[in-house]
Design goal:
The chain is an alpha/beta fold and 386 residues long. It has two domains: 34-163, Immunoglobulin-like; 171-385, 3-Layer(aba) Sandwich (Rossmann fold), CATH 3.40.50.1000. It is built from eleven helices and 14 strands. The protein has helices at residues 2-31, 71-82, 142-146, 188-197, 209-218, 239-249, 270-287, 303-313, 329-344, 355-364, 373-385; strands at 36-45, 50-58, 85-86, 91-96, 99-104, 110-115, 127-140, 152-163, 171-175, 228-235, 256-259, 293-298, 318-324, 349-352. Strands 1, 2, 3, 4, 5, 6, 7 and 8 form an eight-stranded mixed β-sheet that branches. β10, α6 and β11 form a beta-alpha-beta unit. The longest helix has 30 residues, at 2-31. The chain starts with a helix and ends with a helix.
Length: 386
């Protein structure tokens, strides 16, 4: 079995290399007409360390989604997301906290950098501006080209990064698929249909999730700011869709940590899913050593196993684990065994039917204001009716 796994992994890697070469040859000239785009992913950190990441692509601007978009418009947007061309070996200049840094994109166009923020950060602030630009890359502005003007401009992207304030009581790490967003991740065809043929307006949230996450962010005292991080095995190509979805649904803004899309066997394996999510969770915990965390996921895939491992690795740092029940009775029994393991480490792990059940337990632990429970119930009813 190990032989075939190694064979498949090697063959997939070689196929991906050959595919990239063929794509470069066939689409090189067409891609030259596409403008450079810096795709920044919300950075995050603490007063001691900040992690920044993003990607450089040749890609036309994606259209703004609408609740009136047709099947073909959604399909075109999906093609644009996955049909972009990565730009390797380019220098990205990053301006943050009055300092300038540089990073170089890898073979897939990604860049990543860890920096140390200044010691005198403003008290009471969580979001800070960051500016990305391509070093030495200029391009014709499309709107100027339309009127015949000849003028080049720098490729620039303005963004923000999040630093958990010193008064945060805890952080939240949440799965996305089948926890926040209805995906039916255990059904490959249904997941593909929802992902490729829908948009941010057609996707559905789990009932009451927006009000629950707002309550967690506010904590038991509404003047608090508890950071929320979203971790998923979905590809980075869907980042803009998720940002729009969270905004439309009123879900609190936070870093969204996705994964690269490649042809390796790990992409389709539970091992790859487990490794990616566990690695991202560890990174969040590492840059927030002062914070305990609440973990939220679902029973459909491997969230219970991953969170159980996080509990074992981080004694005293996990306040509670909430698992939305979206699976069969046989799977639920396996989850209950993991619940007993978490309880042995003095961590409550609950298998819950809906958001309200999790919120009521969170209120009993003093994680949220009990007065937010009626709002969460009302939000659940509104989502169910819509």
């Amino acid at each position: 079995m190990a032989f075939w796994n190694d064979f498949f992994t090697t063959t997939s890697a070689e196929a991906e290399t050959q595919f990239d070469r063929l794509k470069n040859k066939l689409f090189g000239r067409l891609d030259a007409q596409k403008p450079y785009r810096i795709i920044y992913y919300r950075g995050f950190g603490s007063p001691t360390a900040v992690w920044l990441t993003g990607r450089v692509l040749r890609q036309h601007d994606l259209s703004t989604p609408s609740d009136r978009d047709t099947f073909w418009q959604n399909l075109l947007a999906t093609y644009q997301r996955f049909g972009s061309r990565d730009v390797p070996g380019v220098t990205v200049r990053i301006d943050a906290f009055g300092q300038q840094y540089t990073a170089i994109t890898d073979n897939d166009g990604y860049f990543a950098l860890t920096i140390n923020p200044p010691e005198n950060l403003p008290v009471g602030r969580a979001w800070f501006p960051v500016r990305y630009s391509l070093d030495g890359v200029v391009q014709l502005e499309p709107e100027l080209a339309d009127v015949g003007a000849i003028e080049n401009s720098l490729v620039v992207k303005e963004g923000h990064l999040m630093i958990s304030p010193p008064y945060s009581h805890f952080g939240v790490i949440s799965d996305i698929d089948d926890t926040v967003l209805v995906t039916d991740a255990t059904n490959l065809l249904q997941t593909a249909r929802l992902t490729f043929l829908g948009n941010a307006y057609t996707r559905l949230p789990f009932a009451g999730i927006a009000a629950f996450y707002r309550a967690l962010q506010s904590g038991p005292v509404t003047t608090l700011f508890n950071p929320i991080y979203f971790v998923s095995s979905s590809p980075w190509n869907l980042y803009d869709l998720l940002v729009d979805f969270f905004r439309i649904q009123g879900i609190p803004k936070g870093p969204i940590l996705l994964r690269d899309l490649d042809l390796s066997s790990k992409l389709f394996s539970s091992q790859g899913h487990h490794t990616h999510k566990l690695g991202m969770i560890r990174k969040v915990l590492d840059v927030n050593p002062q914070l305990p965390f609440v973990l939220i996921g679902d029973s459909g895939q491997q969230d219970p196993e991953i969170y159980s491992q996080v509990v074992r690795e981080n004694p005293g740092r996990i306040l509670a684990v909430y698992i939305r029940d979206v699976s069969t009775d046989q799977r639920d029994e396996a989850v209950r065994e993991l619940i007993r393991t978490a309880e042995a480490h003095n961590v409550p792990m609950l298998l819950v039917e809906d958001t309200v059940a999790a919120a009521e337990h969170a209120a009993s632990l003093g994680l949220i204001d009990p007065d937010t429970i009626p709002e969460i119930r009302a939000d659940r009813r509104a989502d169910e009716e819509s």
